[in-house]
Amino acid sequence: MGVEPATWFWLFLTFAALVMISGLYCFLVTFNLLRMLIGLEIIIKGVTLLIIAAGFLSGQLALAQAIVITVIVIEVVIMVVAAGLIINFHDLFDSLNVKNTRSLKG
Amino acid sequence: MIYLFIFIPFLALIVINLLPQGEGEFAGWAALAVFSAQLAAAALAACGLIGLGGGWLDQLLHFRLLSDRTGLLLLFLAGLVGGTALLSGWRLRGASRSNFINLLLIALTGINGLALASDLFSLYVFIEVVAVSSFVLIALFRERSGLEGSFKYLMMSALASVLMLSAVACFLVAADGMSFAAVRAALAVPGNYLARAALGLFLCGLFIKGGLVPFHGWLPDAYMSAPAPVSVFLAGIATKAAGLFTLVRLVRLAPASADLSAVLLLVGTLSIVVGALAALGQRDMKRMLAYSSISQMGYIVAALGTGSALGNAAALFHFFNHAVLKSQLFVNAAAVEEQTGTRDMDRLGGLAARLPVTGTTSVIAILSTAGLPPLSGFWSKLLIVIALWTAGHQFYAAIALLASGLTLAYFLSLQRRVFFGRLRPELENVKEAGAALLLPALGLSALTVGVGLVFPFILGMFIK
Amino acid sequence: MITMAILLVAMALAALWTVTANLYLRATIALALTSVILTVIMFRLGAPTAAVFELSVCAGLISVIFISVISLTHRLTLQEFLSRRQNRFARFRYLPPLLIAAALAMYFARQPLGVSLPWRETVTDARSVMWDLRRFDLFGQVMVLLAGVFGVVTLFRGAKNRDGR
After folding, report:
1. Which of A70, B125, B276, C49 is most buried, taking the most CB atoms under 10 A from its CB?
2. SS3 of B176, please?
């Protein structure tokens, strides 16, 4: 690939940022728990892309892969816990919308 | 030796779950033994009575652990606050009890990993260990507020993780690996803006994890909605370890710079003032303590912002005091809630006559937090103000001093509304809490008074 | 360069589809698609181990988690569905301009920073790095997984027996 590394870096950075902005936007405009979780997933995808690209560009691809694998494991555990919370939430309120059910002030 | 800190809780977890569970009594005692052993080991190691070498395990495992005084301080506090939380949750029964104990041990392993990690990414992994066990602990009873508080914490914490991971990606490009040494070397290069940006991202993530203003939205909800023993653990050590302790580690990696110092001072002072003002307006006892927690954490961050050796020492000393005092106040809140069934301060009053021990220990903790001599909180606040002043930040020093007055104001309001005044008729039959809540409260107050009296010795032991 | 750019654009579009889809099930499928495209990107960059993880865990396991949550919770009447479809356009109105603005900002910010990359060529096997250098992280992973196990034990205990204290 005969392109300059700095160009590559900006290409990956731009697209990772675009993916993360989409996720963050979804996270911010919704009051629905499941949709927030989906937004979060998209943000994490963007970060994963960024880490792999950084590893590729700096020649530390092996380290980047080790990091990505760890991140994926943590991500899945967080998703399982969040899914458990959502299911319990739905059992209690029969709704996934925090606007209907919010009891906490902040 | 040092490997025992991470393996003993892990092994205890396995043993507890392999053995048949009766009423869960054995699990409780075993976990208590783990916490006490850690407390004792950390104290002995700080006095130099136990060596901290890796020995043959180092050859075998290559964990590259970092053992220093700062880490030992966290290990000591984790044992202390963890044991306190365990005792205050002693009354739990059934599945809640075993889950509580298991998750507490996992969180302890996570905190110990944090204390010993010598690598930025390992630090992140162990922050997540503490965070995931905290999410589950908050939702332990699966009731309305617990689920909401937990979900909110989970979301904010995940956003913080994303920021930290972006920082890790930047360091991959800007530094030669993830170890503290490599990161320090990269930050020392003058033109390395990418490393600076990465440091900023990581700091933002830690501000969210620690619940500092302007990222504090989740913290009062999480503390308030958690079950009483869990909020002792969260407020006392879990969020402090994940947010503040890592902040201490990170700030020491960067060379002193005006920008970093300005950011830390600003965030710290904002937290001090906003936390104290918000605490004044609360009715819920635990919510007030949560805002007070934000305010006290602000002192620690501001002290770190001075960048001087004195500032660092003051920050660590206040970290110690804050963990002790806040866990004690949450234990007192647990006692009040358990005996009266409410945390609404407008429906309490005059409990000092009915809960004499809780009332007295609460007075000690409150006076110490507000900075009254000769209690331990006075010394740490004094050191922080001196550090700010001598570093040329007179303005911030003045704010820190004035906010001490606010601290006293909201705490006196708490004390007056809960413990002093006329006893309400419906609280006539309230009795003192059980020994499981009184013992930790007494022990922690003794520590507060004792540390205040032998202050120079303690300072030398942990910080110098 | 061209292939990679196409893949990146596809990933961004899949992400956009994920966040704007008005049915959870479609969002989940789009999320899996995003993961698959990310997997292909990883393969092309020479990171097969991470790619396999991404494909099996993120595209596979997380989709399963989402679908089970949806099937356990999702009860949407036709009316809700229609109102949501109207809402969606109002809600996501600002996203495309925001994305374009961000892309332009990144394009123009490109020159001044001028990062000089190390461009090392020290590619080794990911498994050996994981095992030789990142063993403490592996221990951390085990602890996170254990926390997740106790999370499942606590949170999926069956909705009926909320015994609590």
Report:
1. B125
2. coil
| Average pLDDT rounded to a whole number, residues B81-94 | 90
How many C-beta atoms lie closer than 10 Å to residue B371's C-beta? 25
| Phi, psi dihedral angles at B410 (to 5 degrees) | -70, -30
Query: CB–CB of B110/B130 below 8 Å?
Result: yes
- How far is B254 from chain C, CA to nearest CA, in Å? 20
Residues in CB range of B427: below 8 A, 6 or more apart: B340, B348, B349, B350, B351, B354
Question: Is residue C160 in a domain?
Answer: no
> Distance between alpha carbon B418 and the CA centroid of its chain, in Å?
24
Mean per-residue pLDDT for B97-110?
Answer: 93
Per-domain residue ranges for chain B?
A: 266-464
d(CA B452, CA B375): 4
Using DSSP's 3-state secondary structure scheme, residue B265 falls into: helix
How far is it, in rounded angstroms, from Cα A13 to Cα C8? 11
pLDDT in tens, A80-101: 999 999 998 888 877 777 766 5
Indicate whether C68 belongs to any domain.
yes
DSSP 3-state of C161 = coil
The separation between CA B339 and the C-alpha centre of its own chain, rounded to angstroms, equals 26
User: CB of A70 within 8 Å of any CB in chain B?
Assistant: yes
Location of structure tokens 């996992």: B106
Domain hosting C12: range is: 2-99
On chain A, the residues whose CB falls within 8 A of the CB of C147 are: 77
Chain C residues 95-134 with CB within 8 Å of chain B: 113, 115, 117-118, 132-134
C156/A84 Cβ within 8 A: yes
Q: If you measure CA to CA, which chain B residue comes closest to C119?
A: B173
Question: What does B400-464 look like in DSSP terms, one character per residue?
Answer: HHHHHHHHHHHHHHHHHHHTSSPPPGGGTT--PPPHHHHHHHHHHHHHHHHHHHTHHHHHHHHT-
Confidence band for B252, pLDDT divided at 50, 70 and 90 = confident
Contact B393, B306 (CB under 8 A): yes
Query: Of residues B393 and B456, which shows the higher confidence score?
Result: B393
| CA–CA distance, A55 with A64 (Å, rounded to integer) | 5
Average the pLDDT over each of B55-64, B314-323, B427-436 and give the range with the smallest value.
B55-64
- Sort out which chain C residues have CB atoms less than 8 A from A59's CB and list them: 118-123
CATH number assigned to the domain comprising residue A16 = 1.10.287.3510
Instruction: Determine, yes or no, domain membership for A61.
Output: yes
Q: Taking Cα atoms as reference points, which of B270, B315, B328, B317 lies closest to residue B294?
A: B270
Residue A50: closest CA among C159, C147, C41, B80: C41
* Domain annotation covers residue A106: no
The DSSP annotation for C79-95 comes to: HHHHHHHHHHHHHTTTH
Find the domain containing A12 and state its range: 5-94
| Domain presence at residue C25 | yes
What are the CA-CA distances from residue B195 to residues A26, B250, B251, C29 (Å)?
Answer: 29, 13, 13, 37
At residue B279, φ and ψ (nearest 5 deg) are -65, -35
Is C31 close to A74, i.e. CB distance below 8 A? Answer: no
Query: What is the C-alpha separation between B272 and B400, in angstroms, rounded?
Result: 7
Contact A74 C141 (CB under 8 A): yes
Structural domain contains residue C23: yes
Best probe of the C interface among B58, B66, B99, B178, by most C CBs < 10 A, is: B99
- A30 located within any domain: yes
User: Structurally, how many domains does chain A consist of?
Assistant: 1
Inter-chain touch C34–A42, beta carbons under 8 Å: yes
Cis peptide before B214 (omega within 30 of 0): yes
Scanning the structure block, which residue is given the tokens 């994490």?
A44
With contacts defined as CB-CB under 8 Å, which chain A residues touch C157?
none
**Closest chain B C-alpha to A54 CA, distance in angstroms:** 6
The answer, for A99 touching chain B at a CB cutoff of 8 Å, is no
